[in-house]
What does this fold into?
Amino acid sequence: MRPSSHHAATDSAGSPKANAFTRGDWRVIRDLLPYLLEHKVRVAFALSCLIAAKFANLGIPILLKDLIDTLNVKVDSAQALMLIPVGLILAYGALRVSASLFNELREALFARVTQNAVRKVALQVFNHLHSLALSFHLARQTGGVSRDIERGTRGIQSLISYSLYSILPTLIEFCLVLGYLAYAYDIWFAVITFVALVLYIIFTVVVTEWRTHFRRTMNDMDSKANQKAIDSLLNFETVKYFGNEQFESHRYDENLVRYQTAAIQSQKSLAVLNLGQQIIIAIGLVLILWRATIGVSNGTMTLGDLVLVNTLMIQLYIPLNFLGVIYREIKQAITDMDRMFSLLSTDREVADKPNAPPLHIANYQTGPEVCFEHVSFHYEKKREILKDISFTIPAGTITAVVGQSGAGKSTLARLLFRFYDIQSGRIDIDGQAINAVQQASLRSAIGIVPQDTVLFNDTIGYNIAYGKPGSSMEEVQAAARAAQIDGFIQRLPDGYNTQVGERGLKLSGGEKQRVAIARTLLKKPAMLIFDEATSALDSKTERAIQEELLNLARNRTTLIIAHRLSTITHADQILVMEQGQIIERGTHAQLLEAHGRYAEMWQMQERTAVD
It folds into this structure.
């Protein structure tokens, strides 16, 4: 949500530790390598092209030297009458084309490797996030997670780009230049070049690491600002209800101000880094040219040699000018990748056992038998939610659960979907412990109509079809007709292509509930859960949808979590919960005759309805 202010020279590393490459950095690179090495042949060809390009690059100034020396003759000499050295000129042009050709081949060959790595890592992180327990998603803010993935995938491209296209070519060229200088000229040329480069690298690393905390602060403030912005926009209606636009703006701006302060400090320290780098480069170039000039004056070097040495130094120092920027970008890329890979290392908590079989439903027409045996569960150790719960839902019957808020009713649904694992006891479906079967098969057998239906920001047709991806339009329309929403959809200008808005805000509560019923009908589950599915609706809409829910529940094992008792009088079994325990059970008539807690709740709701 922050306006982008990217400039290559303004970014500094975000490394969590103050040394060049930490063990964690190498671990991130090691984690990335398997994705790159899937294309070993392509990588080998790309590296070969890289080396060939550097040899061609070194040959260009050498040919230029030969050309200059060939033309360095007196006008009236016999040599002046010779033909122009066409071969050298053509070879010079050929080397330039070759260097460019090999560079382009390298990039073309490695493009697939890079994009394949980005796609596979991003997909793996995405799938892993969906496999994590509900507790992870309740604790993390969506804006921060999405930012981590975005920066991490961008970091892969940056790391590969800067390493393969900048750092590695520079190192190869540096070795070739040093070798040529030591072989062809005075050893001092190689010594001066080597010392200047070492001093440059040391200075760059030390100063960049000093600037590290500025980038970390910028990243943190960027993520926090993004989290607050997304959270505020997702809750747009709530902000408007309470007139808190200025409050949200102030919260957002607090992090932007901190980001701004860190960015300014980073820019100031960048000036120190750039100045120091230029001083080191200038001293190295002066010393090299000084020795070359002496060589020309005493006859040990030609004008071509002077041009060659100068060209080699410029050719070498041009990429060195960007070494600081590249180093900072690589460190930042590694940091961003580390944050993304840390998501992959997050414990799944709720995972399938090795070789877990799929859930087998004995009779899909009547639904499965569901059994809770001495189940105890807590989200936090200090607060127990369910205490030794035991009950059975016979196949094809309806069981309703009632009780005050916080009694643990909705937790039963979450446990049936295995969003969490229980601490003790056992939950069986048709005699199979749900923690021993595949989660995917378990969830495919259960359909739910929740209290708060959240829809995707897409069309009505898409949201209904989400119950069974790949369904035909005829199947979607049949489900909509069964949920009595087809008529409403047909009256809309865009029909099934009508956009529902963020979280379905363009639809009313009753319309969203009918969409939820339609997609559950399309799924055709063996078991149904209604989690206070009508508590947010008006009485008229509730009665209409209640009939649809009863039709949906017919011949299916059904668990109804209810607030209004009038909606569950038809249930085959009613469980009354209080403080995580079942205190009463029976049919509606039996519980009224018992004159217990259920009867009190019934009388209270009856009086409220009359009032």
Notes: The first helix runs from residue 23 to 36. The chain has a mean pLDDT of 80.
